[in-house]
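Reply to dn_fold:

You asked what the input looked like. This is it:
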Amino acid sequence: MHDGTSQIAAKVVAGDARALARAATVIENRTPEAAALLRELGPHAGRATVLGITGPPGAGKSTLVDALVRAIRREGKTAGIVAVDPSSRISGGAILGDRIRMQGHHADPGVFIRSMATRGSVGGVARATADLALLLDAAGRDYVIIETVGVGQDEVEIAGVADLTVLVLVPGMGDDVQAIKAGIMEIADIFVINKADHPGAERVESEIQGLLGLQTRNDGWTPPIVRTVATEGTGVDELLAAIRTFPRRRPGNARASGGEFSIDHLGVAVKSIEAALGFYEGQLGMQLGLRETVPHEKVNVAMLPAGGPRIELLEPTDPESVIGRFLAKRGEGLHHVALRVPDLNAAVERLRKAGARLLNEPQIGAGGHRYVFVHPSSTGGVLLELIEGG
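and this is what came back:
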């Protein structure tokens, strides 16, 4: 394995945004590094919810994705967006760039956007789309959203990439709903009637209900119909609720198989990150992933991937900070254990009802993820951090 590839993979898993962008380019360009990189990332994937958003041109898919991402971020969760665009006949690149799409998210570290050209792929889903979705999943994104070019008989291939497929329709389609029923209608898991404030929304919903009545799904799921006005954000929370309700069945997914908790990292308080790295990198040979400063916690952080979990080195920037006081009282050593949970709000509510002592309200910490600390008096003597997402 090339050391450079391993280092990029480690940084991606640790949440490094630059490494993520570089890895996306490697994968999209199908360079010789791509296969090795994907092998490294594969074991870290399987936690994200992968959404396919498709529908006819003019249905407002991009606007809906933008509104959906805003709702996701309001919940403190992260998103990766793959916008599959028509290929330029001259350059082969994407005509619509990610700077045009969803400009309001460009400065948000919790949102990663990538435009991809179809490059002649039948049905509009580029060959590298599935690999890029795996990359974003391994990078810890809670949601990976794939927005496709349009809708047609061959567009059904998106169902092989996504956990669930959202079909976006609009009033005024008339017989067009009937015309596309032989393709995407059968594999849509959620129907969205966007621009639902326009005349004809009721007719579109009746058409969908009529078609659903002719279908029998062997998984027991009845696709819901959600009305939205994406430009105003109307109905978007209801759509996100429907997405969360859908039963994911991807093999190897810890959450789907009942494994609700997993170790995210071990927090180690150190006087000097540089000195500690002399051991972890210099002597042990581990690869440094992420380094950052968290100002509100007055701490410098270094993440070292160790298989699935990570080692988090914590160096105080202020002797009166939490880590500074910990070092003064106890010296260097294990500071806390962090468990990853799929839904932090639900976990916090359960702990409060049980009388557990929480040290803070859920907030954003290193890597852009939400977390809360539980006092050692409630955990058997260990400071426990619950962190949401991947």
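The two ends are 25 Å apart (CA to CA).
Hope that clears it up.
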